[in-house]
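Standup notes
- DV: blocked on the single-chain target, sequence here:
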Amino acid sequence: MVDGVGPGIPAGGEGTNGADGADGTDAAAQRGQEQRDQVQHRQDQGEQEQRQVWQPADSAAAEGGQDSAAGQSAPSPAEPAPADPSAETAVIRQVPVPPPAGREPAPADPSAQTAAIRHVPVLPPSVYAAESGPGQAFGSGATPYSADPAPDDGAEDADTAASGSLLSRLPRRGIIAAGSVLALAAIGGVAAAVTGGSGGGNKNNGSGTGAGSVNGGAGAGGSSPSPSPTYPAPAFTTVPADGTSNVDPSKAVTVSVANGTITSVQLSGGQETSGTLSDDKSSWTSNGVLNLNTSYQMQIQATDKGGKSVTKTVSFTTLKPSATIGVLEMWPGSDVSVGVGQPIRVQFTNYVPSSYRADVEKACVVTTNPPVAGAWHWVDSDMMDWRPQDYWQTGTQVSVALNLTGVRAGTHQYFVKNHSLNFTIRDTDLRLIVDTKAFKATAYQNGQVIRTFPIDTGSNDPRFITWSGTLAVLGKGNPVEMKGDYGNGDKYDEFVNWATQITYSGTYVHAAPWDGQIGYVNSSHGCIHARTSDATWFYNLAHVGDVVQVTGTSKTVAVTNGFGDWTIGWSSWLSGSAYGATLGGKPVSG
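- DV (later): unblocked, structure below
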């Protein structure tokens, strides 16, 4: 409770409007009487600090708060008297604030027991009546000025009556004075219950810069903690979508997420499928292809921007193809040792249209130790070969994985089975260089000449010219039956010994003891004739994949007539690839 704040309210002030209560009602008169009774009651309570009252300038009031002399004339109602300089301040008491439950009360600060406020002059009653506005004078029967609007039903708000009923009954200047006193009292340590910060508001939701509302007003001294931030949940997009059937197994499965990052993707069905996550972890793409006619389930985990984990499960089924394709044959075969000129060859059971060849090449992965780059080349519509740019390094280990199951190789054609093979490049690099014009052959082993011997190759008849080109040994036989019927009595059917094959069309390096022109004339039907001792020596030394290079003729061997792969230059070889050069199955610059 604050003592000595504001002027007293005259018990019977006259208003300048509404005299005789012509416009008033009994209820208004009753309220006016109640107001006067309350003021009188407060005065009767014995306020301990006397409020400053205006006195005329010629007043003979004694110092120390004595009453003015009797018979003193009152100031004119029309002129408010100036404040008494001797009463510039009034004293208010500190009202202690009870400590919170469970805590000892803090000792009062002796230096803050009182607070001084500046004197607020009290105007004559007639001025208050005039300030109140038409129909607002006390005692006139009209409703006085109120800081808080009265309830519609006329009932007094209990909280308002407890916290500020007196202020609600004061004229505007009285309210301003009372508000000033309350502000100074709060600064001096006086505790007062306020309904909000400066700027307005009621006790339930006041806002401003003061000490916040009793019931949660937002102020600098009483703000509530901010709620935890919320983030949108990750949104998933998958291809295929959940529940899709007849999915093309050759197409990659993709996952993308908005409002989050992918932490894991597991795709299982006929086999576990790996994938690649983007650098920003917003998308994932499967590697390889899926099985045909198989049910798959994919489980995706992602986190939102706040770190909360979300899981999504997607199910789909791949199609059953109406046509299939397979592998007819592979060279050089598995678990064999071959020469440095041996390419890898795969022949399919049906042709593969050019628009599907890149996918087929991609699925056929060649890995080597030591690592070496190479490329597939379509030597025919149903056949492709893989080789390095140069001859193999001796001792290289080669693995071929044909991951073809589910790969699409036509409009309705799919591979249905995987294949693989492993082989080794032998430790000896053997090459035979045949110079048809010089009628001789030179053997090199690991770069060193180890033997030179005379030969006789095909005649100048276009039918019998020996194929030029770089070839690989296909196999050996001892003996080998050879037949030919070229007309005009040129016919034979003989068994020859120490025969080493280099083309499918029937070119061999073999012994020809009947040929007396070896080393002088080219007179054969296309084979390379050698003396028995030289043919035997080469036969015993050669392996499948060893290089035989023939030079000096007008005919170039076809790639598919044996293994004529090395006859093609590297740039031309790459032009026959739909996917390009690879290293360990991964694309590389050619």
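- Follow-up: The longest helix spans residues 26-44.
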